[in-house]
Amino acid sequence: MTVLAPAWSPTTYLLLLLLLSSGLSGTQDCSFQHSPISSDFAVKIRELSDYLLQDYPVTVASNLQDEELCGALWRLVLAQRWMERLKTVAGSKMQGLLERVNTEIHFVTKCAFQPPPSCLRFVQTNISRLLQETSEQLVALKPWITRQNFSRCLELQCQPDSSTLPPPWSPRPLEATAPTAPQPPLLLLLLLPVGLLLLAAAWCLHWQRTRRRTPRPGEQVPPVPSPQDLLLVEH
């Protein structure tokens, strides 16, 4: 019996390779149908904290973007990497405690997070602070872990650099850019109506005098007597 193999085109092989590579690199749909956070995670973290040296130095990100849910997830991603690193230098007892805590936050590896950006800055702190923050992030995420899709959180984001931020807005420069008419003095405003009234009165008086001196059409103006006439009248 001869079995014929399906004649797949190169395009079909390419699509299969893309599907396999995406499955191996993690899903872009970062969501959880069932809560991966147990009810006793705080007990596991406290047991590890009690066993560890409280001042053991670790680092935490200092300039992650302030995101209510993404920020908690990002900090768990960084904390999970510290758990893996600490397991390589811990003893058998310590490895067991680390693995119990790591199990609580290992769910972040189910999502295809991008590598931390180069703008991310780290500061040194102690392990007790890291574990305390890890517990706080789990508390913040637990009510939302099955309700939200965290696909938009797959890229860790830094806070904007203060040197690139625009200067704070102030209403004073904005008001200064608009030209404003000079305000007249209050005394000038009070004297202006009086001056207009005086000007109108003077014009009326001048008009009346001019009207008296100007003869009407057809009216004869008596001649002005000369000084000789005045002398004849007196004699």
From TrEMBL:
InterPro entries: 4_helix_cytokine-like_core, Flt3_lig. Gene3D superfamilies: 1.20.1250.10. This is Fms-related tyrosine kinase 3 ligand. It is found in: Cell membrane; Secreted. Its main location: membrane. It is a single-pass type I membrane protein. GO terms for molecular function: cytokine activity; kinase activity; receptor tyrosine kinase binding. Residues 1-26 form the signal peptide. The chain crosses the membrane at residues 186-206. Keywords: Cell membrane, Cytokine, Disulfide bond, Glycoprotein, Kinase, Membrane, Secreted, Signal, Transferase, Transmembrane, Transmembrane helix. Residues 213-235 are annotated as: Disordered. One of its GO terms (biological process) is positive regulation of cell population proliferation. GO terms for cellular component: cell surface; extracellular space; plasma membrane. The gene is FLT3LG.
